[in-house]
Every structure is written in structure tokens, then in C-alpha cells.
Amino acid sequence: MNYHWDWMFFFQETDDGLKYYDWILSGLGWTTFVSLASLAVALILGSVLGVMRTTPKRWLVGLGDAYVDVFRNVPLIVQLFMWFFVVPELVPENIGLWMKQDLPYFVIAIVGLGLYTAARIAEQVKAGINSLSRGQRFAGLALGFTEWQTYRYVRLPMAYRIVLPALTSEAMNIFKNSAVTYAVGILELYFQYKQIIEKTSQVLEITIVVTLCYFVLAFVMNRILAFVEARTRVPGLIVGTKGSK
């Protein structure tokens, strides 16, 4: 393979007066912003759905199950296209016009990625709650808590500790899944990757750099949540790897 390596091309000036490394940094910023905002949406909505699916109210369970079944079984890119192209045509005309002309693209990307990930988090929150002893719920009710207060003060804090490793995986995956948002116009890392290849044909250099960027983002999130897991572990309930027998 007769390939010409040229790492210095990152410092060449582009058509817009910036340098190629500026495009990488811009894409990295958008990837981080969209991913973290989507993760916040997914954690909030996923927690609500997880609670709904463990309540005694069958209609809430049904709503939660329907949401998870739909959003887990439709590819992310199809969901983004639905929000971007189809939904504006289904809502009232003035709202649809606003969505197409004034609503920032990154809002659609955050909503689409957040709703998709929420379905996965809902499964994990449900599993965490169901893994708890029924006695915890009864103890909360005996203390005078309402059903919702037992979730807030008793069941959810314990469930989050149990499913934190699974939530860590979702938090790492959301950075990788954010690459799909280029399809709706987000100038994130993968978009810049494709654009630089078209401009320079330096495929190997830019592929290595972008791969390292995604690795660093996911690895940092992994280490942050591993620290949170270690700090919030309940002694005797979740056994750590150090000192375990």
C-alpha cells in the first residue's frame, strides 16, 4: 500500500479560514454537548418509565411497556428522520413551520437520541426496582410514606446503585450513538470526519484521531461513573472487586 502519511495537514487552513484541527475540536464539542444533553433527557424519562412499569396500576404499566416496545425496536436513525421530516408534517401547520424553520437542529437530535436511550434505561431501572425486596416497599408504607414517596426515598436510591454498571454502559454508548445525528445536520465529530476525508483524502490519520476522540469520551465517562459507583456502594449489598472472596 503506497499511502502518503501527513500528520501536518491538521494545521492547514480550510476554505472558511479555520484549520482542520479546529473542525475536529468543533465536532468534539458538539458530540459532547448533544451526548450529555441526551443522557440527561434519557435518565429523567427512563426513570419515570421504569417506575411506571413497576407500579400496581396496570394502565401505567401498559403505557410504559408500549413506549419501550416502540422505541427499542425502531432503529435510531429512523427515529431521527421521523422527528426531523415526518413530525413537522403531522402537527398543526404553524407549529410544523416553526419546527422546520426556527427550531435548532440540535434540539431534534437531543430529543431523538434521548427518547431512544430512555427506552433502554427504563428497562434497567425496572430491573433494579424489581430486584429489591418487597419488604422495603412495605417498610416505607408502614412509616407513612405514600407509594410515590417509597420510590423517591427508598426504592429508587437503591435501584440506581444496583443498575449503575448498566447505566455506565448506556452513558458510554450514547457518545457512540451520537454519530448518527450527523444525518439531521449536526456538525458533530463523525460529520467533521467525513468532511475532512472528502477535502484531504488523508483517511488513516483522521480515522486514528477520531477513533481516539470517541475512546477518550467513553473512557472518561466510564471512570467518572466508576467513581460514583464506588462512592455510593452499599456495604454488604453490592460486593466490590477489591477484597472480595
Give the topology.
Elements: H1 20-52, H2 58-72, H3 76-90, H4 93-101, H5 105-130, H6 134-142, H7 147-177, H8 189-200, H9 203-232
Helix pairs in contact: 1-5, 1-7, 1-8, 2-5, 3-4, 3-5, 5-7, 6-7, 7-9, 8-9
> What is the terminal-to-terminal distance?
52 Å
Report the CATH topology name.
MetI-like fold
The average pLDDT score comes to 90
Quaternary structure annotation: single chain
Q: How many β strands by DSSP? A: 0
Radius of gyration, CA atoms, in whole angstroms: 22 Å
What does this 3D model show about the protein?
The chain is globular. It has a single domain, classed as MetI-like (MetI-like fold, Orthogonal Bundle). Helix 1 packs antiparallel against helix 7 and helix 1 runs antiparallel to helix 8. The protein is 73% helix and 0% strand. It contains nine helices and no strands. The protein is an all-alpha fold. Its main location: membrane. It comes from Aromatoleum tolulyticum. InterPro entries: AA_ABC_transptr_permease_3TM, ArtM/GltK/GlnP/TcyL/YhdX-like, MetI-like, MetI-like_sf.
Features of this protein?
transmembrane helix, Amino acid ABC transporter membrane protein 1, PAAT family, MetI-like fold, 9 helices, transmembrane, mainly alpha, single chain, transmembrane transporter activity, transport
Provide a compact summary of the structure.
With 245 residues, the chain is mainly α.
